[in-house]
Write a structure and sequence with these properties.
With 259 residues, the protein is α+β, with helices and mostly antiparallel strands. The chain has two domains: 161 residues, no CATH class; 65 residues, no CATH class. Helix content is 40%, strand content 19%. It is built from ten helices and seven strands. The strands form two sheets. Strands 3-4-7-6-5 form a five-stranded mixed sheet. A two-stranded antiparallel ribbon has the order 1-2. A hairpin with an 8-residue loop joins strand 5 and strand 6. Helix 7 crosses helix 8 and helix 8 packs across helix 9.
């Protein structure tokens, strides 16, 4: 159980490099008393090759759960820029809390959170929820971005949620039924490999307009046509009784090559 949800909890490092969207690495959160999600996330940062980010401005975006002291220090240690969500009740070093800044400060202000010895740039925005109500969200950065630009960056981190929804509903990440650790890892790797194949196929298309459902169908037809053919055969077999009701028989015969 984590945050009231029961299931397999993953910490994923999702790399956005140009037009590429790559699930670079992942860790499984096991249970209370083991390595925390923040500790796992900090370890994932070390898996990024230095030559991949050499000369690049690296921005690490993460959800509110990762706005901890250790994670921010881990990002800053690599001279990268962290952009993370911050809880409204987070304490400042002067004894106040983050929420009070909404009415008494301007977006893009520098603040010092309790327990952190370096300043953060803070901004906020109103998020419209599914029920139509608005919720005040705060976001902080280790780099002094302007308040408006920081909000723009903060909204982009919802691409992380987009990846998880795509991986679950298009690549069956949520459908595994394995009961062993090895089985779980096998299913996760198969799901991520299928995602990368689809993404790779889309990048070769022109123009590359990513529609995951359409792209998955294209990948099956191009790379796994035998699987598509077996699905067609099963569909015909399972629905042959419908054809019979209308006085038809469906026959599949091999084509004879011409001499």
């Amino acid at each position: 159980m984590l945050n009231g949800k029961r299931g397999l909890h993953l910490v994923v490092l999702y790399v956005v490099l140009g037009d590429w969207r790559i699930p670079w690495s992942f860790r499984i959160w096991h249970a209370q008393g083991q390595a925390t999600p923040n500790q796992l996330a900090s370890k994932l940062l070390a898996t990024v090759p230095k030559r991949l980010v050499a000369g690049q401005t690296v921005i690490v975006q993460a959800d509110t759960e990762f706005g901890t002291i250790d994670f921010l220090k881990a990002v800053r240690k690599r001279r990268w820029r962290a952009v993370v969500g911050i809880r409204a009740n987070r304490k400042l070093d002067d004894g106040g809390n983050v929420k009070a800044l909404y009415r008494h400060a301007k977006r893009g202000c520098l603040v010092r959170l309790n327990g952190i010895d370096f300043p953060l740039t803070l901004s906020w925005f109103w998020l419209k929820r599914a029920d139509g109500k608005r919720e005040l969200r705060f976001i902080a950065s280790t780099y002094p971005y302007s308040g408006v630009y920081l909000v723009r960056l903060g909204r982009k981190r919802w691409a992380i949620e987009g990846f998880f929804k795509t991986a679950k509903h298009q690549f069956a990440l949520h459908c595994f039924g394995q009961g062993t650790k090895l089985g779980v890892y096998r299913w996760l790797l198969l799901s991520l490999i299928a995602y990368l194949l689809a993404h790779w196929m889309d990048r070769w298309a022109w123009p590359p307009v990513l529609d995951w459902k359409q792209t998955c169908r294209l990948v099956r037809e191009k790379l796994l046509p035998n699987v598509v053919w077996l699905q067609v055969q099963r569909l015909i077999h399972d629905n042959s009784h419908i054809a019979t009701q209308f006085g038809f028989d469906i026959l599949i015969q091999p084509r004879h090559s011409e001499a």
